[in-house]
Amino acid sequence: MADKKLMDQSSDDILLEVKNLKKYFPIKAGVLSKQKGEVKAVDDISFKIKRGTTMGLVGESGCGKTTVGRTILRLIDKTDGDVFFHGEDIFGMDNKQLRDLRTKMQIIFQDPYSSLSPRLPVGEIIGEAVKEHNLVPKNQYEDYLDEVMIACGLQPYHKDRYPHEFSGGQRQRICIARSLAVNPEFIVCDEPVSALDVSIQAQIINLLKDLQEERNLTYLFISHDLSVVEHISDTVGVMYLGSMVEYGKTEDIFKKPLHPYTQALLSAVPTPDPDVKMDRIILEGSIPSPANPPSGCKFHTRCNHVMDICKTVVPEMREIEEGHFVRCHLYY
Amino acid sequence: MALLKSKKAKSANYISGKESRRISKENRKTTDQIEKQRNRRNVPRDEYITQMKDQNNVVEFDDLHTYFFTDIGTVKAVDGVSFNIPQGKTVGVVGESGCGKSVTSLSLMQLVQRPQGQIVSGSIRFNTGDEVYDIAKTPTSEMQKLRGNMVSMIFQEPMTSLNPVFRIGVQVDEVIQLHNKQMSKDEVKVRSIEMLELVGIANSEGVYRMYPHELSGGMRQRVMIAMGLACNPKLIIADEPTTALDVTIQAQILELLRNLKDKINSSIMLITHDLGVIAEMADFVVVMYAGRIVERGTADEIFKNPSHPYTIGLMNSKPAVGKKVDRLYSIPGKVPNPIDMPNYCYFYDRCEKRMDVCKTAYPNEIYLTPTHAVSCYLYHEMKGALENGR
Questions:
Q1: Is the ipTM of this complex over 0.85?
Q2: In chain B, which residue's Cα lies nearest the Cα of A256?
Q3: Phi, psi of B285 (to 5 degrees)
Q4: Among A34, A151, B279, B377, which is least packed, fewest CB within 10 Å?
Q5: How far apart are CA B98 and CA A180, in angstroms?
Q6: How far is Cα of residue B281 from the mean position of the Cα atoms in its chain?
Q7: Count of CB atoms within 10 A of residue A53's CB?
Q8: How far apart are CA A78 and CA A176, in angstroms?
Q9: How far apart, in whole angstroms, are the C-alpha atoms of residue A184 and residue A190?
Q10: Alpha-carbon gap: B96 to the closest alpha carbon of chain A (Å)
Q11: Could you tell me which of B287, B330, B93, B350 has the C-alpha nearest to residue A231?
């Protein structure tokens, strides 16, 4: 059984491995919907996540962060590349195996207002997948639900209420409880705090961290908020226009950013201290269209260290220091 | 126990049909009266022309109360707010959603949803340079001459605040034409393109002929700023101007706003929930909670010496780049129900430093320095002790 096999390899340190993942969306036009081109939403991305750690994925909107998250879960199909979960190729699985896999990998969406069905009471939302997968015996179902809800900071009597009766922060807790109910090992958090107020953000981030410690969860944390990513992640990947431009340990990335894009991104974050007036690197223009990305290094149109070679040759991902990868001609 | 709790929780927002009808009848009576007062023809000028307390201010909010009369009760969205916006300075207003920061700015623009939303008392004095208007009493016809001309507003969502069916040029032209009737069409166009250039749009002639959907979020926000600045306003209200944008674009827009403010010598009222943005932009900071100001002062004072427990909590709950903490502080509980607020300090239920005296009445403002005011009993005692010591 696939499930059994998954369990056997749980001692393995690397939980998820992504190799040269590509996802292109076709652009269709005309009466016959002929394919005119393609949007390279994810273009050759590789990384590994260790069990029990959090990987942060940052980048501007439209850089393909969310597509990475969804392709890993096989919510959308890949164009090329491989994703291994516990050493198993996700895209090689049949429907039965995939069904078992769903209990191991879960996702928390950005907007807690549109990701909960308004017609289902909260208990049902959280318990639906538990029932579907027969994870707990029927007589223990209610107790199990209570336990999950309490773990996520909800009260068991909330079970009979509907999502509209809850505030944004509470709803996000429901979303977390829903994905936690099937006892997953890996959760993709797709901007889980972006839609929330600052004080509520802190509550949700603390909750995610506590749950990680208790259950040894592994997160892929997608966000555009660098301060949140620094707080929660062990490793960070920086994406630009579908490619990973820099990848490494959180301290390395934030203390010593190597790629000019990461440097610009970090310097753009406002600091809550009126005395800090840093030399800001302001990027000109906005992110180019992924349907027609620039040749060579994709960042060369906005880079302030641009050289001739950048315009023609695509830089390779290189390990500059141990565990610190960067894709830039400056470091050749 | 759980069942009992659930029933009690349910009753918090529940009112009977009879009660609801009574409330809405009463509401209609109140709002009709205010509307009647508003809609009079030929309001005498001396009713809304007043004097500033300090000529160096552009705006003085004086004990402003803006209420919403809803069918389940009155929501006091802004409940006694007073602060000044000095000439050429940036005032930042921070607070969580629902704290009344947007309603304060909408009151200043007279854009509060009427008839259910009304300025019930207080005044907003606005200095145009020659005359001083009390916006709370200014009739709509006069207000139209100020709006977009003397005060302008940049909204949060550049996506939804531009009209998708008109070209950018038409929308910028409209503002200029409306307030400068003597200008010819060609002059207006020249001015529009000039404005687009001013906000850093490189291909200004091209953008003039484009539709909003052809522009990116940052470009649309630039167009909004161009529209806002088209008539050289005395005051720009920026309501979360960068919340919907990426960090790199946010940095561009903030830089632009800072430069433009000096160029046309106007003031900015910056509304945001991002303390980082405030620290970078603002000279003065106003912290709001549940419709009231809990603390205000210069940016230095607020960030170096945050005094109200809410301000302190707000600052600790946001992770900062380069500052490593194990666990984020989170303010316990949530914002109280806006209908029937308690008659003691609104922050009492969430405050970690609460004392018995906090449960008596809403605390008055205490001045820690001539510019730094805080509404909290913690400092009442301190101040009292200081005075006794002398």
A1: no
A2: B322
A3: -125, 140
A4: A34
A5: 30
A6: 15
A7: 16
A8: 26
A9: 16
A10: 6
A11: B330
Q: Is A271 close to B2, i.e. CB distance below 8 A?
A: no
Please tell me the total number of residues recorded for chain B in this structure: 390
**Token pair of B359 as six digits:** 């449960």
CB contact under 8 A, A155 and B5: yes
Cα A94 to Cα A23, A89, B88, B193, B296: the distances in Å are 20, 11, 66, 59, 61
Token pair of B168 as six digits:
């950018």
Are residues A266 and B321, on separate chains, in Cβ contact within 8 Å? yes
Closest CA to B255 of B234, B277, B271: B277
Residue ranges of B 264-293 with Cβ closer than 8 A to chain A = 273-280
| Phi-psi category of residue B3: left, alpha or beta, with phi > 0 → left and psi -120 to 50 → alpha | alpha
Element (H, E) at B36: helix B17-38
Q: What's the token pair of residue A174?
A: 């429901």
Comparing alpha-carbon positions, the chain B residue that sits nearest to A276 is B280
Tokens coding B195? 């404005």
Chain A CB contacts of B274 under 8 Å are 198, 270
**Residue B134 near residue B122 (C-beta atoms within 8 A):** no
Q: For the beta carbon of residue A38, count every other beta carbon within 10 angstroms.
A: 15
Per-residue pLDDT of chain B (390 residues; tens, 9 = 90+): 444 444 444 455 677 888 888 988 999 998 998 888 888 888 888 888 888 888 889 999 999 999 999 888 888 899 999 999 999 899 999 988 888 888 999 999 998 888 889 999 999 999 988 889 999 888 988 888 888 888 999 888 777 889 999 999 999 999 999 888 898 999 999 999 988 988 888 888 889 999 998 888 888 888 999 998 888 888 999 988 888 788 888 888 888 888 888 888 889 999 988 888 898 889 999 999 989 999 999 999 999 999 999 999 988 888 877 777 778 888 887 777 778 788 888 898 888 888 888 888 888 888 998 999 999 988 887 766 555 544
- Cβ within 8 Å of A, B 213-242: 216-219
